[in-house]
Amino acid sequence: MNYIQKYIEENKDRFITELIELLKIPSISADPAYSDHVLNCADAVSEAMRNAGANNVEICKTNGYPIVYGEKIIDANLPTVLIYGHYDVQPADPLELWDSGPFEPVIKKTEIHPEGAIFARGACDDKGQFYMHLKAFELMMNTETLPCNVKFMIEGEEEVGSQNLEEFVKENKERLECDAILISDTGIIANDTPSITTGLKGLSYIEVEVTGPNRDLHSGLYGGAVANPINILCEMIAKMKDENNHITIPGFYDNVIELSVKEREDIARAPFCIEDYKKALDLKDIHGEKGYSTMERTGIRPTLDVNGIWGGYIGEGAKTVIASKAYAKISMRLVPNQKDEEITRLFSDYFKAIAPTSVRVKVTPHHGGEPYISPTDIPAYIAASKAMETTYGKKPVPVRSGGSIPIVALFEKELGVKSILLGFGLDSDAIHSPNEHYGIFNYLKGIETIPYFFTNYAKDH
Ligand code: BES
Ligand code: MN
Ligand code: MN
Predict the structure, then answer these.
(1) What is the mean pLDDT of residues 111-132?
(2) Pocket-testing residue among 130, 165, 185, ligand 1, by greatest number of atoms within 8 A of Cβ
(3) Pocket of ligand 1 contains residue 161 by CB under 6 Å
(4) Which distant-in-sequence residues (6+ apart) come within 8 Å of 182 by Cβ?
(5) Residue ranges matching CATH 3.40.630.10 in the chain
(6) Is the CB of 374 under 6 A from ligand 1?
(7) Are 104 and 92 in contact (CB under 8 A)?
(8) Which CATH superfamily is domain 3-200+371-460 in?
(9) Could you identify the atom of ligand 1 that is nearest to the CA of residue 402?
(10) Could you tell me which CATH class the domain 202-256+302-369 is placed in?
(11) Model confidence at 14: pLDDT above 90
């Protein structure tokens, strides 16, 4: 057992109970009713940062929820690593689908996590993951092995689009100056198949409203004679894809970069079993854009999905009615070279163009974000890859994710620094869903892997 494993072995119970305490705070950024809890969570994070050994810990005010900053500068000649994470979490509903309270963490064993997993909202996304960095930092401080300067920036608005982080980054360029950015807010393929995320998708998120008659109508007296906004909205959404599941918005694919044969071969080499995939989701068959594999559909192809749709009568029993309005929330995940503002405009133009004259439509853009690609030949990637190889005994596979962390592209633009997405969650950890959890194995493995990143990076950067 080396000094890293020894420190973890001696402190792991405390590592787990500390995380459990943090998970008890319902820091839901989307719901104003939880604002006191979000602020309390920022306090708890700053406390944990200070206890781990960081200096100049500050709860930085923004126009929204604060950003917790802290640092340990040991030598101006050494490289500096900026750690980013988020302490806010997604709303927990629907509550009735949770087997235990979302903010009453419990440890349970599962098939995939025989050593146990902590069940709570935010366990994996992202409290459990950014907390690994505080504990790995504590480990390096207490064993006097910290080989780089470290800066921490843990924000509280990631799940609502990081709207105020942009300004913070622009105004704090000097304070945030660094050589590499390290983020654990993604996943690995499996606990015996480490991987590093090399791509994140961009995002355009839009709400649409379709209005038919000026009031809800009797569906017998008026049915068949006026536009039913729900029917029309369904038709319009259906028109957004053709029979090959290709998105029909004019210009949508114009800037999409087609991958080379070699790049697509690399993607196909990542371990993936379609039968397991279907089984895990209880699906008889998969579905997607013609001509692309599942990994390509999620990793390299832009997508369009309705996230929610409502209107009309959804109460008990039957009510014969033609609603006046229908609504939908629609997201498009974007790939390199697609600009979210442009895609939002293309969507909006198309949506208005295909609306029949019998209805009125309104398009309201929500937050967006640009995609991100991480090269695999830069020192920070190589340091991360070797770190995982040491702790997992296997070289990690580079994987492009379908998820988005819009701020990562902004870091590149404003700070000129690439981010390494060294996440440890599993797709099956149910982030954003009921019964979110994070494996104890994953948590401790992350704490073990991070110090190797630092030593590797200090040696070769
Ligand atoms: N940590 C996730 C993103 C993620 C998860 C990326 C797993 C790759 C693998 C992040 O907290 C998230 O949920 N992002 C949102 C976008 C945001 C603007 C709300 C997303 O991807 O939907
Ligand atoms: Mn996250
Ligand atoms: Mn999330």
Answers:
(1) 98
(2) 185
(3) yes
(4) 81, 82, 83, 84, 133, 380, 384, 419, 420, 422, 450, 453
(5) 3-200+371-460
(6) no
(7) no
(8) Zn peptidases (3.40.630.10)
(9) 8
(10) alpha beta
(11) yes
